[in-house]
Structures are given as C-alpha cells and as structure tokens.
UniProtKB/TrEMBL annotation:
It is an enzyme of class 5 (isomerase). Catalyzes the conversion of N5-carboxyaminoimidazole ribonucleotide (N5-CAIR) to 4-carboxy-5-aminoimidazole ribonucleotide (CAIR). It comes from Streptomyces jumonjinensis. InterPro entries: PurE_ClassI, PurE_dom, PurE_prokaryotes. This is N5-carboxyaminoimidazole ribonucleotide mutase. It catalyses: 5-carboxyamino-1-(5-phospho-D-ribosyl)imidazole + H(+) = 5-amino-1-(5-phospho-D-ribosyl)imidazole-4-carboxylate. Keywords: Isomerase, Lyase, Purine biosynthesis. One of its GO terms (molecular function) is 5-(carboxyamino)imidazole ribonucleotide mutase activity.
Amino acid sequence: MSTAPLVGIAMGSDSDWTVMEAAAQALTEFEIPFEVDVLSAHRMPAEMIAYGEAADARGLKVLIAGAGGAAHLPGMLASVTPLPVIGVPVPLKYLDGMDSLLSIVQMPAGVPVATVSIAGARNAGLLAARVLAAHDPELRSRMKDFQQQLNEQATEKGKRLRA
Ligand code: RP5
C-alpha cells in the first residue's frame, strides 16, 4: 500500500493541534496516509498559498484546514486548489469559537469549504475518509463497518439505560 499522503491537515498555529489531532486520529484509524503542517494565513501567507497551489500536483486528494479567530486558512486554501477543503473552526479564549465558525462557513459562492462543527476535527477526518471512499470500495466497506459499530454502541447504551 502506498504511504504517500492523501490528506493534508493544515492549521494556523501549533496551538490548534490539541483540536486538530482528532482529525489525524480518525485518519489513522482508517489507515489513510496524511501529512500535518502549520500554515498561518496571516503570518505566512506566501507559504500558505504555495502549499494550496501545489497540493493537487503533490498527490493530495483532500485538505483539512483548522484555524481560530479570524480563520481565513480554509477559505484561502479553497481559493487556490481544486481539491475539496474541509474547514475546522478552532475555539479560542473568547467568543466560544463562533468567530472561527462564521469566518470559515460564510464563503462566497463558487469557493466551497465543507465546514464541520466547532472543534469538530474528528468529523473532518471521517468526512475526508468518506470523500476518498467514494472511489475506493474497500475503504467504503470499512466505513460501513464503522457505522455499524456506532449503531451497536448506541443500541447498547439504550439497553443499559433500560436495564
Ligand atoms: C489563528 O490564530 C490560529 O489558527 C490559532 O487558532 C490562533 C492563535 O494562534 P497562536 O497565537 O496560538 O499562534 O490564526
């Protein structure tokens, strides 16, 4: 199996990692190779644009981008790559992540970012897995197994409550 990264996880600061590592964890569970980078839209704009422009040619298939506050990273990456971009609003000290959420979700028509919930990095990883699974029957089968496990866990919790 190729170990070349298929998913790029980018974040505005290393301080975002405590939230973003859940995306990496989900990809690891599905044995999907990924890479991780810090790319601040405001502190290193040239590097951020270069990363976005090169991502497709480097073989990445999906980008996951997390940022907090004035969270421009996901949208700016989406503006320079044809790849699907999943945005993760990272909550900071103030405003409970609403600033990050609105910065990421309110994209202009023509430049989509698939925004997950505030601090929803695990779902970002799972969504990236589903995007890849669309063209990978074996991965799709593992996703179905995962969904079955979720069902069984929820069913079990209900049984325990009723007991
Ligand atoms: C954003 O500013 C980053 O994505 C991070 O969420 C926030 C704070 O960054 P640091 O000051 O912790 O580096 O661009």
